[in-house]
Specification:
Length: 150
């Protein structure tokens, strides 16, 4: 059966990948669920729709259900905040070079943005840093027309 993500479902608490405390504050990797079908003949339905039941022998109701395939990967806020501070420090140190010479710095920018996105550091980011990270993103876009997701 299919493996799916269910963004509408808030996953359970899992150990923070850094310190092990139970958390679901910052989801780094979404949980994955396996779909499966439950099939049964609906006895209640038969009771109410006796005639239909006769006409359509073996009427079945199929319900899609989910079982957990991979638990989500999370980081607690206490570990996440200093990590973002470090990333912002790194951004401040390198952004001018990156923006000035995007093509030469492309792979460094890509690597940085990949980690940045993984940890979800855009979340409630101060305005002045939003500008910096946007500058870096456009430097990458303008470099080779590639996106950070590739
Ligand atoms: Zn932690």
């Amino acid at each position: 059966m299919r493996i799916v993500q269910r963004p509408e479902v808030k996953g359970g608490f899992v150990p923070c990948i850094e310190c092990g405390v139970g958390t679901r504050s910052h989801v780094l990797e979404s949980a994955e669920y396996e779909e499966y079908e439950e099939v049964w003949e609906d006895d209640d339905l038969q009771e109410y729709q006796g005639r239909k039941k006769v006409e359509e022998e073996e009427e079945e109701e199929v319900v899609i259900r989910y079982r957990l395939h991979n638990e989500q990967v999370c980081m607690c806020h206490k570990c996440w905040v200093p990590r973002r501070e470090k990333a912002i420090g790194f951004l401040n140190k390198h952004k001018d070079d990156w923006v000035r010479d995007g093509p030469a710095q492309m792979w460094r920018i890509k690597r940085f943005l990949k980690s940045w996105n993984y940890y979800g550091f855009d979340d409630e980011l101060e305005l002045k840093y939003q500008k910096d990270i946007e500058d870096v993103r456009s430097a990458l876009r303008n470099s080779a027309g590639i996106s950070e997701e590739e």
